[in-house]
Amino acid sequence: MKNNAFKEYIAPVVVLVAICLVVTGLLAFVNSITAPIIEENSIKAANEARAELLPAADTFTAFDGELAVVEDGKIFATECYIADNGSGMVVTVKTKSFGGLLTEMIGLDANGKITGVKVTAHGDTPGLGTKAHDPNYLTQYVGLSEATDVTAKGDANVTHVSGATISSNAVHAGVYAALEQQKIVGGAK
């Protein structure tokens, strides 16, 4: 009876634990190979986006001071890179959108005017919420140097996308936070 209980209950558990350990080890090995490649590609993509948003810049240096936080932490800057030639800065901002956190990068020239806006990550509804991420929609921000309200609906300088008000407000809130970051930094130096 004892032998039968071992074969019926303990042996399958031992086999499953061994399989789990082997699979976990293989996943850890694959991760150790791919993690540096993924990190390198992420850095490369961020650098390309910065260059696209602020074409006058030659190279960038990370700002190591205070980062903007708006609306009790619902909108916050995660990175600020200042152009080494003094042509401006690019700010990465996260804000709450319809589908979760929205990440965008905003370029600002040395005079505090927006040079470009690019949504880099989101969970918004394709075809509806993503209309607020469309490059044609985002061009309305180019040249702005001030946002009068944290919401797109409350700011007379911009329009929002009907049916995608939350996504429009999220994009606009990110721009608002980037302009606040410009004030914190004191302009491009």
Describe the structure.
Helices cover 41% and strands 22% of the residues. It is of the alpha+beta class. The chain has 2 domains: 1-53; 60-185. Strands 1, 2, 3, 4, 5 and 6 form a 6-stranded antiparallel beta sheet that branches. The mean pLDDT is 89.
**Major sheet summary line:** 6 strands, antiparallel
* SS-based class: alpha+beta
Mean pLDDT: 89
Domain module count: 2
**Multimerization status:** single chain
Helicity range of the residues? 40-55%
User: Number of helix segments?
Assistant: 3
- What is the succession of H and E elements? HEEEEEEHH
Rg value: 23 Å
Backbone shape: elongated
Strand-residue proportion: 15-25%
Uncertain segments are none
N-C termini distance? 81 Å
Number of extended strands: 6
Features:
alpha+beta; 3 helices
Task: Briefly summarize what is shown.
With 189 residues, the chain is α+β, with helices and mostly antiparallel strands.
SSE diagram, text form:
Elements: H1 2-53, E1 60-62, E2 69-70, E3 75-83, E4 88-97, E5 100-109, E6 114-121, H2 135-138, H3 165-185
